[in-house]
């Protein structure tokens, strides 16, 4: 079938928008090439193979859910995962149901009973924090765990429920191939200095402040 004369490339006059589009494409390709060179350089330099320590902090939503996202990633490869939550055990969450029901192979420990924000029993809180920390410490000494999540651990440091040096030294001395994720607001400068990656989730806005009720599967 013969092409219509106006579609023959040789006879196409480049219109102004075409020229603009071509220039834009060329500019984009040049920028991408430069970007690729930079990334490739970083990839070549990033030779060290070891577990990493990550702190997810800040006032915005997304810290614990990001940590649980990494648990999902690790489980996808069949790696061993241990999770210790420094929170009251009463609050049920989708992640707890998921792990307890679908992934019983995951080591899962919640501070739970004994922890009493409401009753202001500082000694009781400290005792609960210490008992819970013992579980974390065990995981941090067990090289079979690929990933350890210490959810809301920072509050134990903020309130001085746990000794900072004890926590930092356990993080520092964990098995080389093990990664650890700590979540929670604050946590202190020494923790930030120690870990490899720090991400601060910024609170731009949150539905809760517009009086939208916390949602199952989204907020807990
Ligand atoms: P998520 O578990 O959703 O990733 P998070 O771990 O970053 O949240 P936390 O401080 O642990 O944040 O709080 C957990 C609960 O509080 C979640 O229900 C979350 O939606 C809510 N939340 C988190 N940040 C805010 C905020 N800035 N304002 C109001 N509610 C928040
Ligand atoms: Mg959280």
From TrEMBL:
CDD domains: CobA_ACA
BP terms from Gene Ontology: cobalamin biosynthetic process
Enzyme Commission number(s): 2.5.1.17
Gene Ontology MF annotations: ATP binding; corrinoid adenosyltransferase activity
Pathway named in the protein's UniProt entry: Cofactor biosynthesis; adenosylcobalamin biosynthesis; adenosylcobalamin from cob(II)yrinate a,c-diamide: step 2/7
Disordered: annotated segments: 1-32
Swiss-Prot/TrEMBL catalytic activity: 2 cob(II)alamin + reduced [electron-transfer flavoprotein] + 2 ATP = 2 adenosylcob(III)alamin + 2 triphosphate + oxidized [electron-transfer flavoprotein] + 3 H(+); 2 cob(II)yrinate a,c diamide + reduced [electron-transfer flavoprotein] + 2 ATP = 2 adenosylcob(III)yrinate a,c-diamide + 2 triphosphate + oxidized [electron-transfer flavoprotein] + 3 H(+)
Record key words, sorted: Plasmid, Transferase
Coiled coil spans: none
Any Pfam family the entry gives: CobA_CobO_BtuR
Keyword ATP-binding attached: no
Gene3D superfamilies per record: P-loop containing nucleotide triphosphate hydrolases
Superkingdom in the source lineage: Bacteria
tRNA-binding in keyword set: no
NCBIfam families attached to this UniProt entry: cobA, PRK05986.1
Biological role stated in the UniProt entry: Required for both de novo synthesis of the corrin ring for the assimilation of exogenous corrinoids. Participates in the adenosylation of a variety of incomplete and complete corrinoids.
Family: Belongs to the Cob(I)alamin adenosyltransferase family.
Protein name: corrinoid adenosyltransferase
Organism of provenance: Trichlorobacter lovleyi (strain ATCC BAA-1151 / DSM 17278 / SZ)
Organism lineage: Bacteria, Pseudomonadati, Thermodesulfobacteriota, Desulfuromonadia, Geobacterales
């Amino acid at each position: 079938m013969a092409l219509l004369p106006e579609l023959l490339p040789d006879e196409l006059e480049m219109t102004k928008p075409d020229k603009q589009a071509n220039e834009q494409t060329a500019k984009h390709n040049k920028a991408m090439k430069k970007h690729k060179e930079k990334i490739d350089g970083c990839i070549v330099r990033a030779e060290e193979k070891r577990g990493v320590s990550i702190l997810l902090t800040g006032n915005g939503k997304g810290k614990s859910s990001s940590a649980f996202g990494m648990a999902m990633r690790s489980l996808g490869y069949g790696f061993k995962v241990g999770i210790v939550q420094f929170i009251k055990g009463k609050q049920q969450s989708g992640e707890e149901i998921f792990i307890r029901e679908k992934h019983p192979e995951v080591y899962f420990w919640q501070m739970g009973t004994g922890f009493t924000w409401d009753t202001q029993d500082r000694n009781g809180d400290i005792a609960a924090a210490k008992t819970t920390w013992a579980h974390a410490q065990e995981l941090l000494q067990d090289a079979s765990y690929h990933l350890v999540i210490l959810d809301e651990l920072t509050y134990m440091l903020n309130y001085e429920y746990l000794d900072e040096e004890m926590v930092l030294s356990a993080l520092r001395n964990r098995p080389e191939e093990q990664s650890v994720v700590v979540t929670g607001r604050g946590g202190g400068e020494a923790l930030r200095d120690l870990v490899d990656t720090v991400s601060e989730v910024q609170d731009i806005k949150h539905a809760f402040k517009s009086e939208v009720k916390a949602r199952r599967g989204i907020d807990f």
